[in-house]
Sequence to fold (111 residues):
Amino acid sequence: MRILLLAVLLFVTFHFLRMDLVEGTIPLASFSNEKQSCVEQTDIAIIPVTTVEGDTIESLFALYPDPSTSFIERLSSFYSLNPHLQNQALIGGEKVKLPLSQPNDNSCANE
Fold:
């Protein structure tokens, strides 16, 4: 029983020492240099569109093109704006929201 208790005690001690050496006890944030990184952010503009009979997502994207984003990115934005359309086709007379990206000014933030 003593051997088992000693083994558990040694395991816990070595575990805490290893975690202390790997992660450290002093926060690394106090030693970091402040660097500015400029990242171009894009906001998504929304265009409400009323569909007509026979419309598809591809035809709506063709009517309102957005060359700055890929089809897959735009399709995922479309389904996040219109989650009810994931399991059904477009119905005529329904209002849907189409995503368009608008590049903002470069925003520089401290890291």
User: Anything to note?
Assistant: The first strand starts at residue 36 and ends at 50. The chain has a mean pLDDT of 80. Residues 2-23 form the longest helix (22 residues). The helical segments are 2-23, 57-63, 71-81.
